[in-house]
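User: My collaborator sent over this chain with a note saying "see what the structure looks like." That's all I know about it. Can you take a look?
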Amino acid sequence: MATSAAKNSSGLLKNNLREYGLLMSLVAIMLFFQVMTNGTLFQPLNLTNLILQNSYIIVMALGMLLVIVAGHIDLSVGSVSGFVGGVAAVLMVQYEVHFVWATLICLLLGAVIGAAQGYWVAFHKIPSFIVTLAGMLIFKGLALAVLQGSSVGPFPAEFQLLSTGFIPDPFAGENLRILSLIAGLLMAVVLLFAQVRSRAGRVRHGMDSEPLVFFWIKSLVFAAMIAGFCYLLSSYKGLPNVLIVMLVLMLVYDFVTTRTTLGRRIYALGGNEKAARLSGIKTERLTFYTFINMGVLAALAGLIFAARLNTATPKAGLGFELDVIAACFIGGASASGGVGRVLGAVIGAFIMGVMNNGMSIMGIGIDYQQVIKGLVLLAAVVVDVYNKKAR
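Assistant: Without extra context I'll predict from the sequence alone. Here is the result:
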């Protein structure tokens, strides 16, 4: 009995090693850059900038995760976000369309773009790499055409609040934004409660669960990180509006991927498309939906990026797809599909963001930054391949 329990614990730890490793890696990287930057990394102003700089990457990573889990890839997300940002600028600045209507039009445009690319991938079986590579070139050109080769701005002040605004504080704290702090602490408590409830449910139904000690260590460390993070932000201007948008999206996508039939079917599709089709899953339609979802999130990311810059430029979105895909793979998504978690993709995006931010503060050139990020991505894929062989 004891031997069997030990084997089960060992197997569960092995299966959850990537999740623990990701969390520990993020903590270690943040501590490393905190020391190397002489405490600059954890400054409230820098943490706020870190969120604003990576918000659009995290938003797109949520959509890219579903695409990768379904067994595909989307290389066009950077160009689509840049193109949609350009369309938003033309609508709001040149044609003076109200920012709410312009935002809705742009999100609808993103859905149409995703549907157009998903149609060829899902129903005509053209490899997603080829379709989205073509899309990357097409929408990069369309962005140049829409903006006529020049920057367009500034945006209306209300639209800029999407990326530059902070949640108001009715308590009027001078050195501490009370409402932001309360919201952050509640967020940490709710996430901790959700983790405890989820584990209790697995134990109640006789499902395998990680050892209690490791569960509490992981959960408490994560809750403490969220609480501390929100405290630091509250000592500056509070929680940014875009952070609230990100958190809502994270909760929605985590619920969809873990608690709904749709989420389970996407994982089944990526794990074995033929078996999924034989079990009655409409695989073509599911693939089509994942690309529509990706298009909408790429459009939202384009709006967030444009609002942050307060202008739309022809080069907006350049290279975004690389950071988004890297975030998913570093976060544990498998290149062959069927594997990946929302939390992992978010942590992967933060790992990339902290590395970019920390290396920039240290004065490391963009050339070596690219080399280091490439090595980190390669290491993440190697670990994924090793884990598959070990099973």
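A starting point for your reply to your collaborator: The chain has a mean pLDDT of 86.
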